[in-house]
Amino acid sequence: MTSHIIVSRHDGWAELRIDREDKRNAMNRAARDGLMRAFEQLRGDAKAIVLTGTGGSFCAGIDLKEREHDRQQGIEGAGDEWIAVNLAIRAHSAIFIAAVNGLALGGGATLINVCDLAIASTSASIGCPEMGFATYPGMAGPAIQLSGVTRKQAAWLVLTTNRIDGTTAERWGMVNQCVEPEALLPTAHLLAAKLAQFDAVALAESKKALDYIPAFVTDWQGAMDHGQLVNLTIRSNTAAQTEGSARFAAGIKNPGQGV
Prior knowledge:
The protein is of the alpha/beta class. It has 2 domains: 5-195, 2-enoyl-CoA Hydratase, Chain A, domain 1 (Alpha-Beta Complex); 200-249. The protein is 49% helix and 16% strand. The chain contains 11 helices and 10 strands. A 6-stranded mixed β-sheet has the order 1-2-3-5-7-10, with helices on both faces. α1 packs parallel to α3 and α3 (78-91) packs parallel to α4 (107-114). It is globular.
């Protein structure tokens, strides 16, 4: 059985493409398993991972037809498996970049928000259709709110089933940048290649800090203290800081410096 996930490896980064175009890249069990396998294969190898879809869709969420068929057979677990995929992205050492090429519904919106960075095409269409099924978007709803949008913006998606385009997603802060369709992958690839220049430990520890500080630290002193702890952890696991300081002192530019 195909995993429906195409893996393209590059120098220090990789692209994962969901390849179920006829199903709007909905995530069936094979695709969920394929993503989990790809995550493990790329651990320690790719510093950045671009996640995108095939054709006109980014991801239409969980494959509801497969899920309903499973339920009729007494099989549950699709929701737990999808949660596991999204949590694996948050726990992964690589920086994930969503390249939102088109339709992103329900679980597709979740993917955008669990990724660390996101670039959207002007042809992107992001929404939560769950209310039409008398359902709260149990993963997309929380992920949207954790993305930092306002309550009313989250309510627009959760309560109305209305979709937003890439330009609106950028204005709301759900994605970092909105570009024309032909520029989407080049932009995402260029960003991934830039990240691949940096130290893997520094990227991974900084990713953890981006989650830890707002979740567990609310005062300035605690935040600053945690920042020092993050750098101590980096220095304990890589010589990159010492080497970078030495290059700077010698008048040699470090990756990203002066750009």
